[in-house]
Amino acid sequence: xxxxxxxxxxxxxxxxxxQMNAANSLDLDERLQELGYELIDAKQATMSRxxxxxxxxxxxxxxxxxxxxxxxxIQANVPILDALADIRDxxxxxxxxxxxxxxxxxxxxxxxxxxxxxxxxxxxxDVFVGVVAAGERSGNLEAxxxxxxxxxxxxDELNDRLRSAARYPAFVLVVTLGxxxxxxxFLVPQLATFLETLRMELPLATxxxxxxxxxxxxxxxxxxxxxxxxALLLPAMYTRSERFAYLVDRYVYYVPVIGPTLRKIALSRxxxxxxxxxxxxxxxxxxxxxxxxxxxxxVLSDSLAVAKDxxxxxxxxxxxxxxxxxxxxxxxxxxxxGEDSGNLDHxxxxxxxFYDREVDDAVQSLVGAVRPALTxxxxxxxxxxxxxxxxxxxxxxxxxxx
Length: 402
What we know:
Mean pLDDT: 81
Strand order of the largest sheet: 2-1-3
Number of helices: 16
Number of strands: 3
Radius of gyration: 30 Å
């Protein structure tokens, strides 16, 4: 079915633009009228436009606003169709507007909201659809969107913290690499010419510096291209090669400082996803299945799959998670207390709060460890250059006749 780009107007006289599947322009007009719009103009999207539309994405903050508004409108007893239409007309995101237009049409045709969301897997994750479906089953869709709002805010804040933590080291590494190449290409060769005029035996550090400068002067394009190539190649291999990705996920935890931080982030994701799903009324097996797909580490995901099988076989959640070897004893004790008291949702909230603090502390510790390490690297490099150059010059002055 072709895709049409359209311009339409609602009953309040407000224009809207979007794209929709339709058999022809008449079918498009009928579909828009069902949504409360009057078609003004439409044209079939070409392949280039289709590619541009496919690249448009819905940001996490757009989903936060959507969940927040759905929570408020449902709380005010606004029907689902009217709530979707109101948010569709008010949103500033063209991509989200198109998605909401399709949701509105599918719900109007009799689909459940979670089922309609399932058609847009690039926008609504398994957790999002699962929570909405649980809210529909329990008749508490308002609480489901409230859980999603808090969860999406946490996820967005976590991503912001991780980006902020990575920004400074990445900037310093780029500056250090550029500075090192500039020194080796422009400064050191000129100083080497001067040192040759001294006609004296150069120290080992100076000879090493001149040798490195010769290599950098010849191969500096390759030296610059290698990090860029690795930055592109490694993520591609991680995405396309399951074996390579598994090996990375397995051994990254053994990297000092970085490994423990990544482990806490993965466990934090599991705790949050599991808590949101469980509090929304999703069964434990479904919580484990959905959560293991979003933890971001294949080793942990496989361990949780084993734990899920044990729960299906009759084990309680505490013993099943203990067999993974991935959870601290304190967390397991908190889950056991929740199971024994019948208040597992409260224990899960406490675990989420615990991991929130753990991730904050781990990220701060990582940044605190990286900054002095980078400072030492820069200082060592500059010290090597200065001593390698100034040492022979000082020795030559010392040998001058008085």
